[in-house]
């Protein structure tokens, strides 16, 4: 949008005065933030209204992305950048003597997600608007997002994330006109509906009010505004007699109170099922309502609506959609089922069996009696259809939805939809070969791959403005709107001046991080050191412990030979552990106690530093990632579905230390073997060990003195104040046979790290690698990923109105 600095200053001061009754000289950073947010709301609201009007008029098809998690982090700078006024606002603030950075930091992260899945959903919202597609999000308006992590005496402590705080969500708008009711519990029996049909009658159901709050999703430089709808719960006045006490009311408000902080194991909690059904039912009801305004037959709703199921969490969708079409609108089963399968599609984000939700039939039928009836009907008809097609009994049994008193949500999502995708090539192959092989056998046509992506605008222009200007200097600004122009940088990867520029801008980013580290942890780190970073959720399969074992090896190397040649390294960790994940929390304790040991050891000095940065989140990732030299992507091959931080590190010039897992493989394909450091077992090596059950970690421990010493360091008192955690880790590695093959991959990892140290010592070689990673990272833009979803899964065409990228 066209906006002059003068006009902006006028609008901003007016908003500050009128809406906040505050004047510049006394306003706090958060008052300035709210005023700025309200000022730009005035700029995009007309675009938003225009957008919805046009989509309705032109009957454009809309895709709805259902996710229990959305992790946008801060939205201010993205909204300013996408409106094309970031520089104007920065200039305006400079003229007003306002510190823009202070104001941006007044915004609380919108942390309504755990990790990769939630962040990907937020990225897709940005890319849908930027590519111009009509793609809307549907989720939950949690009062408390992912817990705030504090490290107390080395231990993770979880604190509520009161993100609404004093200013609430400045970006949201309550939409009363789309309120709907959602029913839980009670009993359902079928009665004669008169027209030879049966209809369900509910008795003593609990009826709750679903209230939508819409958050705008602005496209980059195209005036497109899509919608992220977050549902909140209220008690309908007409039912308040059923909730006489505050306790009763609070129990209801619990439904949207807090995000479940687990990112890999299904707790199976009733409230979680209610959360999943609440957002799914409310979303589908309003989708059908707005579709019917188009005056088209419900049987053909799939021509105008796609609903995407983000992992198993909203997988009740196909059954709920059937309930709405049949019970609420009287469609025939077959017409409803035909529409359902054409509307629904599903993405799997993990092969970990404990993460694939399976609800006990008793609990499910208790909470959702009618939906359960429909699931049983879907399941029976599926089994009948499969056996009619001659599918063998065992395959049918393995793919049924209801088995062993459990409702397998992934099975419902696959049977109830037309598409199943993995999030990286190796992951999709594993779904076909192993995790979902019986489904691949009966409906191979449903399976496809959609390799994840990232919003390059956030991780370059916003998180790394210095790097972005350096790229401008060498290849112009075209890459800012067409990321594929980044490839032009390949021409300069051996240009000494270019290398000097990119080295310098990385050093500046490292200094910015070093200042934050000193300020928050008191640890002083030198930017002469290699910044080696591992930031992601704490999980055994991501093998933060392998990183720790390497650090212990380096510790002994220095202690054995304090005068020896050593390239200084700073190991930086950021990771939250699910509160109930005890082993993960023990690893956090070990990392912090190892850090204390090393960081206070005179003899080691600056050679080695270990830092655990608390409360890792999106806004902290924006500070850490551009400052990294090494990106640790060391999961056991086959376990990390894709990873997305790997792509962010690549795009900001880090060199990846990687196993052949997830999207690491596709990063290698883009940069070539010489510009990445690969180690460890392949997926096939891992599966061979599973098949032969021949892995014996104690054997390696007994026969390899280096590994023996490193493993013993966990229990021999070298690392103080963590005896219990140390023996837990020793047991996991030796007694319980090292589930994630750390000892098997250790030597290969150490050799790879030594190789990396040599590469770093050769500045020209290193900068060739660093710049090659930046230049070829365009492959991983989520704009392209979302185009593939739109064209190959949702069959979306670009709306006839509005500009498109
Ligand atoms: C039921 C508890 C629960 C909650 C979240 C999840 C998510 C699927 C976990 C997750 O975030 N998976 C990550 O998804 C990313 C986006 O596709 C991938 O890049 C990561 O590899 C994958 O671990 C599983 C189980």
From TrEMBL:
Gene Ontology terms: cellular component: cytoplasm
What GO biological process terms are annotated to this protein in UniProt?
glycogen catabolic process
In Swiss-Prot or TrEMBL terms, this protein is called Alpha-1,4 glucan phosphorylase
Catalysed reaction(s)?
[(1->4)-alpha-D-glucosyl](n) + phosphate = [(1->4)-alpha-D-glucosyl](n-1) + alpha-D-glucose 1-phosphate
- Function noted in UniProt: Allosteric enzyme that catalyzes the rate-limiting step in glycogen catabolism, the phosphorolytic cleavage of glycogen to produce glucose-1-phosphate, and plays a central role in maintaining cellular and organismal glucose homeostasis. Phosphorylase is an important allosteric enzyme in carbohydrate metabolism. Enzymes from different sources differ in their regulatory mechanisms and in their natural substrates. However, all known phosphorylases share catalytic and structural properties.
Which cofactor(s) are needed, names only? Answer: pyridoxal 5'-phosphate
Keywords on this record?
Allosteric enzyme, Carbohydrate metabolism, Cytoplasm, Glycosyltransferase, Pyridoxal phosphate, Transferase
EC code: 2.4.1.1
One function term, GO molecular function aspect: pyridoxal phosphate binding
According to its UniProt record, which protein family does this protein belong to? Belongs to the glycogen phosphorylase family.
Keyword match Flavoprotein: no
The record ties this protein, via InterPro entries, to: Glycg_phsphrylas, Glyco_trans_35
């Amino acid at each position: 949008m066209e906006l002059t600095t003068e006009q902006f200053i006028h609008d901003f001061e007016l908003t500050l005065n009128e809406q906040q009754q505050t004047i510049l000289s006394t306003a706090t950073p958060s008052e300035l933030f709210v005023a700025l947010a309200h000022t730009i709301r005035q700029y995009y609201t007309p675009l938003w209204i225009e957008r919805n009007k046009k989509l309705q008029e032109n009957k454009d098809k809309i895709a709805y992305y259902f996710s229990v998690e959305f992790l946008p982090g801060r939205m201010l700078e993205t909204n300013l950048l996408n409106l094309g006024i970031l520089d104007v606002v920065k200039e305006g603030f400079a003229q007003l003597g306002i510190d823009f950075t202070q104001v941006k930091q007044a915004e609380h992260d919108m942390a309504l997600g755990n990790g990769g899945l939630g962040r990907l959903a937020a990225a897709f919202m940005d890319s849908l608007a930027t590519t111009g597609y009509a793609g809307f999000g549907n989720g939950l308006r949690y009062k408390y997002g992912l817990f705030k992590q504090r490290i107390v005496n080395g231990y993770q402590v979880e604190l509520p994330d009161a993100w609404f705080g004093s200013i609430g969500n400045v970006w949201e708008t309550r939409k009363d006109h789309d309120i709907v009711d959602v029913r839980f519990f009670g009993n359902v029996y079928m009665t004669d509906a008169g027209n030879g049909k049966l209809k369900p009658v509910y008795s003593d159901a609990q009826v709750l009010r679903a209230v939508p709050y819409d958050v705008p999703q602005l496209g980059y430089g195209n005036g497109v505004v899509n919608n992220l709808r977050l549902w909140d719960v209220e008690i309908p006045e007409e039912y308040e007699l059923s909730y006489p006490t505050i306790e009763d009311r609070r129990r209801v408000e619990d439904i949207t109170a807090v995000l479940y902080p687990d990112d890999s194991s299904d707790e199976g909690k009733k409230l979680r099922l209610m959360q999943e059904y609440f957002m799914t039912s409310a979303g589908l009801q309003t989708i059908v309502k707005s579709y019917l305004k188009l005056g088209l037959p419900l049987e053909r709703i799939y021509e105008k609506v796609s609903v995407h199921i983000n992992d198993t969490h909203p997988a009740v969708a196909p059954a709920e959609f059937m309930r709405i079409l049949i019970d609420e609108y009287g469609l025939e089963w077959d017409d409803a089922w035909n529409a359902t399968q054409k509307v629904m599609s599903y993405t799997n984000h993990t092969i970990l069996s404990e993460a694939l939700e399976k609800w006990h039939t008793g609990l499910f039928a208790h909470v959702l009696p009618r939906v359960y009836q429909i699931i049983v009907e879907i399941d029976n008809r599926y089994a009948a259809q499969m056996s009619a097609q001659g599918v063998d009994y065992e395959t049918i049994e393995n793919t049924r939805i209801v088995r062993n008193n459990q409702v397998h949500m992934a099975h419902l999502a696959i049977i109830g939809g037309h598409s199943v995708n993995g999030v990286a090539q190796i992951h999709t192959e594993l779904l076909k070969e192993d995790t979902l092989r019986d489904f691949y056998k009966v409906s191979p046509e449903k399976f496809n791959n959609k390799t994840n992506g990232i919003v390059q605008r956030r991780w370059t222009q916003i998180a790394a403005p210095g790097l972005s200007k350096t790229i401008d200097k060498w290849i112009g600004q075209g890459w800012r709107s067409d990321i594929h122009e980044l490839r032009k940088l390949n021409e300069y990867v051996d240009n000494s001046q270019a290398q000097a520029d990119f080295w310098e801008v990385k050093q500046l980013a490292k200094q910015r991080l070093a200042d934050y580290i000193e300020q928050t942890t008191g640890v002083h780190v030198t930017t002469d050191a290699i910044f080696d970073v591992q930031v992601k959720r704490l999980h055994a399969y991501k093998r933060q412990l392998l990183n720790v074992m390497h650090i212990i090896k380096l510790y002994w190397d220095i202690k054995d030979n304090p005068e020896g040649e050593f390239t200084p390294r700073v190991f930086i960790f950021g990771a939250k552990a699910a509160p109930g994940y005890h082993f993960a929390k023990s690893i956090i304790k070990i990392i912090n106690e190892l850090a204390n040991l090393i960081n206070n050891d005179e003899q080691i000095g600056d050679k080695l530093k270990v830092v655990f940065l608390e409360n890792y989140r999106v806004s902290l990732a924006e500070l850490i990632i551009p400052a990294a030299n090494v990106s640790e992507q060391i999961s056991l091959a086959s376990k990390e579905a894709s990873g997305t931080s790997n792509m962010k590190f690549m795009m900001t010039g880090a060199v990846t230390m990687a196993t052949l897992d997830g999207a690491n493989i596709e990063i290698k394909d883009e940069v070539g073997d010489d510009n990445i450091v690969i180690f460890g077992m392949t997926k096939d090596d891992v599966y061979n060990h599973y098949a032969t059950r021949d892995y014996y970690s104690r054997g390696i421990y007994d026969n390899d003195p280096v590994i023996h010493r490193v493993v013993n360091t966990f229990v021999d008192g070298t690392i103080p104040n963590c005896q219990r955690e140390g023996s837990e880790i020793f047991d996991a590695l030796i007694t319980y046979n090292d589930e994630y093959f750390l000892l098997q991959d250790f030597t290969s990892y150490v050799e790879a790290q030594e190789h990396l140290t040599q590469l770093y010592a050769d500045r020209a070689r290193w900068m060739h690698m660093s710049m090659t990673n930046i230049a070829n990272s365009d492959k991983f833009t989520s704009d392209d990923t979302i185009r593939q979803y739109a064209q190959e899964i949702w069959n979306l065409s670009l709306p006839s109105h509005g500009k498109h990228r």
